[in-house]
Amino acid sequence: MHSSGFLRRPIAASVLMLATTTALTSFVPTRARAETAQAQPKYSFNIPAGSLSSALVSFSAQSRIQVTSQAPTLAGHTTTGLRGQFTSSEALARILQGSGLSYQTLGEHAFQIVPAPKAANITLGPVRVGGSFNAHAAAIGPGNGYVATYTDAGTKTDTPLWEIPSSVYVITKQEIQDQQAQNIMEVLRYMPGVYAEKTGTANNGNAGTSGGGFMQRGFQSTQYVDGILSNSRSAGETAFVERVEALNGPASVMYGQTGPGGIIATRLKQPTDTPIRNVSVGFGNWGRYEATFDVSDKITKSGNVKYRIAGIGDTQGTQTDYVNYKRVGILPSIKWDIDNKTSLTLVGSYMYTPDSGMYGTGYPLVGTLIRGKEGYLPRSRFLGEPTNQIQSTKEARFEYQFAHKFNKYLEFQQTFMYEDSKAYYNTITGGTLSTNGSTYSRTANKAWQPSKTIGLDSKIISHISTGPVSHTIVVGMDFRQVKVEQNLYYDLSGKSINIWSPQYGWTPNYSWSGPDNITNQDMFQTLNQKGIYFQDQMKFHKLTVTLGGRQDWYGYDATVYAQSHIGATNVARHVIDVEKEPASAFTWRAGFTYNFDFGLTPYFSYATSFMPQVGYFDVNGKLFKPKQGDQFEAGLKYLIPHSNIFLTAAAYHIKEAHYAITDTDNPDYQVDAGTVVSKGVELSAHANLTKDLHLTASYSFNDTRVSRSDTVEKKRDIYGTVIGTVSEEGKYISGLPRNMVNMFIEYNPPARILHGFGVNFGVRYIGMTYADNANSFKAPAYTIFDVGAHYDFSALTPTLKGLKAQLAISNLANKRYVTSCSSSSGGGACYYGQGQRIYGNLSYSW
C-alpha cells in the first residue's frame, strides 16, 4: 500500500461530501436566512430523488456553491429531489426538508450542513479524509471506496459522470491499493474496454505517447498525467498516483492528437487539508523488497500553504531469468491557497530506474502458442545475453497548476508541465526460429534515447445562464512540444541460440573496425502542436447538451542519418529521410444526456479524432498520413437512488482511416491497412454495496477489423514460410480480444466474525485473439484469478492503531498463458502473461 490506510474507513457521505473538522457554530436565524435569500440570484436546479449526499453534490455542481458537512451527519438520509428555479437558500432548505438537518453560511459562497437545533449540542469526532470538499477535489481526488462520481478529464470541467455523453471509467485509489497494482498496466486489468497486457511483461506499465501496448476499443492509447500528454516511462508508478481514468472513445476535441479509442488519464498525489503520515515496507516472490512513504501536512499555521511528499524504493527479480526491476523515486508537491479565490500547486518528481524489469523480445510461436519438440518454453526462459540486458531510465518532471476565480461566473485555470527523460538500452532481440524447432536467430541493439516534453494548457471557464438554460463554457488553448533523439546501433551478426537448452556467451561488437555487420541510425524528431478549443455544456432541466470544437496546427520534423559496416566495408553516413509536414485539423463533438428522476440517464454522442503517425514509416521512408477517426456512441448511466451504485452500458461504432499495421515483409516498418472499423459494447458496475462490501465488474465486447483495404497479407506456416496470400479486407486486427469479463470484490466481514480482517477476490477472462494479420492462428482465451487479504492490528489492541498488513496474489493458479502474438517473417513473436505474483506489505499510518 502506498498511501495511508484511513481511506478504507467507512464514510457515510458520498465522495463529494468530504468531511471537515470545522466546529459547529451558531445557527443563522431563519429571518436572517430569508433576508439573505432575497438578495441571492436564482439558479436552475434538476436534482433527482435519492441519497441526501448525492443531492448535495448535485446542488453544489449546479449552483457552483461549496457545501461541507461532517460525514456522520448525512448518514442514511434521503431527499425527494428538486426541480425548478430557486435561490441557493431556498433550494437547500427544500433538499433538507424532513431530514432533521439544517445549514449555516460559511462566507459568501459556502454552506455547512449541520444537525437541526435540537441536536446542536452533539459533538462529532473528526473524520480523517484526504481533503475538504469541493467539486474540483472530487473530480481529481481518490474517490470513495470503489465509486467516483465526478471527473474533470472528460470535459476539462468538474462534471458528474452521468452528465458526460461518453464513456468515462474511474479506478479509485482504494481499488488500486486493494489489488496492490504496481503500475498502470496492472491498474487497467479491471477497466472496461481496455486491453493493457497485449505485450505481457514486455510492457513496463505505461501508455506514453505511442501507446505502450495499451489498447482502447481496438486502438492504441495515449497517456495524460494531470491533463498533459506524458512521454514518461515512469508515469505509471502507482506510489505517486491518486486515481486512474479511461476516456473511451475520441478525445481530440479537448486534447488534440489522440487515437479514436481514447486516452488514459492519471492524477498525481497533491497536498491534502487533513494530514497524511504513512510508511510501508513490502515483500514478495522473485526477491521483491519495497519501501514507500507518503506525508502531507500544512506549512503555515492557517493551513493556506500545504505540502506533500511521496517516495518509493523497489528492487526485485522477475519471472524471467536475468531480468530485474529496480527503482527509486520521489514526488514532492506544495499547494498555496493565495486567497479564497486563487491557488497555485507545484509538483515535481524524479525517478531513476536502473533496471526496467521488461523483457521485450517475445518468444517464437512454436514453444509458446504451439507445442514444440520439447513441449512449451517456461516463462523463466531467457533468450538474450545476461551481460547485454540493460534497460535504464532517468526522468525528471515539473508542473504547476494555477487557478483563479474572478467571481462566481468566471474562472481561469492553467497547467504547465516539463519532462526530461533519458533512456539507455543494450539488449538482444529474437528473430527467426529454424525449421528444426530449436535454433533461434538473434540480433543485438543498443540505444541512447533522450527526450524532452513541454506542455501548457490554459483555459477560461464561465458559468452563466440564458433564461432557463445554464451554461458551463470552456475556451482554451494548449501547446505541446515533444523532442526525441535516438542513437541506435544494430549488430546483425547475431549468434543463434537453442531455445530448449540455451548457452550464453555472445558479446556483440559495435566497433566499426570489427568483423560484425553493424548499422547505425541517428534520428532527431520534433513534434509541435498548438490548438484552440471551445465547449459549451448547456443544461435545461433534465437535459444536458454538450457541444465542442477544436482547431489544431501541428508540425513534425524528422531527420534520420544512417551508416553501416558490412564485413570490411564501411558505408558513409548519409541522410535517408527528412520529413517536414506542417498541417492542421479540426475535430468536434456533440452529445446529450437526459437525467430521469429515478436516476437513469440515457445519452448519445458523435465525436471525431485525429492522430499524426509520428515515427511510422513505410519501407521507402515515407511518413504515414495522420489517422482520422469518428465515433457514434449511445448508452445508459444509472446511479441507483438511495445507494452508492453506479451502472453503465455503452454501444459504439468507430471508423478510422490510415490504420498502420506491421509490414510482414519488412517487420521494422509499417503498411497502411486502409480503413478499420471497431464496434462494441461495454457494461460496467462500480458499487459500494455497504460500508464493508465494494465491487467493480465489467463486460467488454469489441470487434475490430479492416473494412476497406487494397493490402495483401502473406499467410505463413508456424516457422514463417510463406504458403499463400489473402486480402487484408475483412480480417480482424491481431492481438485484440473480442470478449473481456472481469470482477473484483472487497469484503470486510463483521467484527463478530473476523474482527480486523478483510478479503478480496478477482477474476479476469480474456477471450481469444488472432496471432497474425492473416488470421491464420489464434491465441486461446484465458481466465485468471486474483485473491487478497488484509488485517488491521488495531483489532488486537488500540496501541497498534494505524498498523496494517496486506497480502495480494495475482494469477492464483499460476496459469501459463499467451497475451498475444504479432506476425512477422520469423514465425511470430508471442508474449507470456505474468505468472503467480505474491506481494505483501506492512504499513503504518499515524
Automatic annotation (TrEMBL):
Give the UniProt keywords, A-Z. Answer: Cell outer membrane, Ion transport, Iron, Iron transport, Membrane, Receptor, Signal, TonB box, Transmembrane, Transmembrane beta strand, Transport
Which first-to-last residue range defines the signal peptide? 1-25
Predominant location: membrane
Does the keyword section mention Transport?
yes
Q: Which domain of life is it from?
A: Bacteria
- Keyword Signal among UniProt keywords: yes
Annotated Secretin/TonB short N-terminal domain ranges read: 55-116
Instruction: Give the UniProt subcellular location, in the record's own words.
Output: Cell outer membrane
What topology does the record note for this protein and the membrane?
Multi-pass membrane protein
Instruction: Say which family it is in.
Output: Belongs to the TonB-dependent receptor family.
Task: Fetch the PANTHER family from UniProt.
Answer: FERRICHROME IRON RECEPTOR-RELATED, FERRICHROME OUTER MEMBRANE TRANSPORTER_PHAGE RECEPTOR
Which NCBIfam families does the record associate with it?
A: TonB-siderophor (TIGR01783)
What is the official name of this protein in its record? TonB-dependent siderophore receptor
